[in-house]
Amino acid sequence: MTTDARRRGPYAKTAERRHQILDAALQVFAAHGYRAGSMREVARTADMSLSNLMHHFRTKEDLLLALLRRRDDDSPGQRTGTHDLVADILSQARWNQTKPDLIALYAVLSAESVTDGHPGRDYFIERFVTVRRGFEEEFGKLRDAGRLRPGVDPHMVAGCITALWDGIQLQWLLQPDQINVVAYLEAFLDLVTLPPDTAFIADPGC
């Protein structure tokens, strides 16, 4: 075995262990929430001792924050290559429906983060601010291109689609056979945007 291979061995094993722990934490926190989910239950689900788990994550808070970071890494923006916001939103929504465990984790932890002292509170505040700001910028571009319906405010529609998306995904988790997330998002986007071939260009003289 080469020196490089010997060096990679322990690192690869550590990374595999951490991945195993995070998979277990996803199951436990999605099912029970952060408050009720215990490190001991995560260790049991990961089929390892509590001391072994705590070698990798010293506290439950450390574990939660690592899981949220991985959630972001595992949920990249789904781009269609068309540079079309509407198409990209619907593509991301379709991808989300293939990851119910990940969406359940997000729904449980985001709701739980409003409780006093929750370690995920700052994460979710920052995430919502970032998401709304990003949508506002993108809807602003659509407005400038004449793709927003007259009177639609990019700031307001950014908040509305953020709320709709989270809310309809929660309903989908409860009734997956009856709720079509993509259809609801598409219907909302049809209300506020125009197709490229019917773009509205405001008369500068008005």
Write structural notes for this entry.
The chain has helices at 3-36, 39-45, 50-56, 60-74, 85-96, 100-112, 121-144, 154-174, 181-192. Helix 1 crosses helix 6. With 206 residues, it is mostly helical. Keywords: DNA-binding, Repressor, Transcription, Transcription regulation. This is Putative TetR family transcriptional regulator. It holds the Pfam family TetR_C_6. Residues 38-57 bind DNA.
Short overview:
The chain is mostly helical and 206 residues long. Helix content is 70%, strand content 0%. The model has no long low-confidence stretch (mean pLDDT 87).
Number of domains as seen in the coordinates = 2
Helix content: over 70%
**CATH-defined fold name of the largest domain:** Tetracycline Repressor, domain 2
Shape-level CATH architecture of the largest domain: Orthogonal Bundle
* Rg from alpha-carbon coordinates: 21 Å
How does the SSE layout of this entry go?
Layout: H1 3-36, H2 39-45, H3 50-56, H4 60-74, H5 85-96, H6 100-112, H7 121-144, H8 154-174, H9 181-192
Helix pairs in contact: 1-2, 1-4, 1-6, 2-3, 5-9, 6-8, 7-8, 8-9
Q: What are the salient characteristics of this protein?
A:
Arc Repressor Mutant, subunit A, DNA-binding transcription factor activity, transcription, DNA-binding, elongated, mainly alpha, single chain, BetI_C, HTH-type_TetR-like_transc_reg, 206 residues, 2 domains, 9 helices, Tetracycline Repressor, domain 2
